[in-house]
Specification:
Length: 123
């Protein structure tokens, strides 16, 4: 679902272009590359391009970034995109992964718990 319009659309397009440039430069360390894929997945999701968002979030996850916040956010981005296209069972797995990698007090963990509850799924 696309929520962007006007200035917001331009900001998302700029973020998408910046992330794509970072990926094209092929940074030497996997954490930097994972962050670029993470950022691109977010921009794609915000522009209604869910399938591409899933591919980019998966690329970030597959790089196994050392930063657990980035790893958890990639799973959250993929959850959102999967949910938008009705792949709820797969989306729930991503939320459960967020809960496995982050402490329960982390804001993203609390968001994951809330989203699971909204889906009628217990932790």
């Amino acid at each position: 679902m696309t929520w962007c319009n006007g200035a917001h659309f331009q900001l998302v397009e700029d973020a998408l272009a910046d992330a794509t440039t970072a990926i094209d430069l092929q940074p030497g360390d996997t954490d930097t590359l994972a962050t670029a894929y993470l950022n691109r997945s977010a921009a794609l999701g915000r522009s209604g391009r869910e399938e591409e968002a899933i591919v980019n979030a998966t690329a970030a996850i597959d790089l196994e970034p050392n930063n657990i916040n980035d790893l958890a956010q990639a799973h959250m981005n993929r959850f959102i995109a999967l949910g938008e296209i009705g792949r709820t069972d797969e989306a729930v797995v991503d939320l459960q992964t967020v809960l496995q990698v982050l402490p329960p007090t982390h804001a993203l963990s609390r968001e994951a718990v809330g989203r699971l509850a909204d889906l009628g799924v217990s932790e």
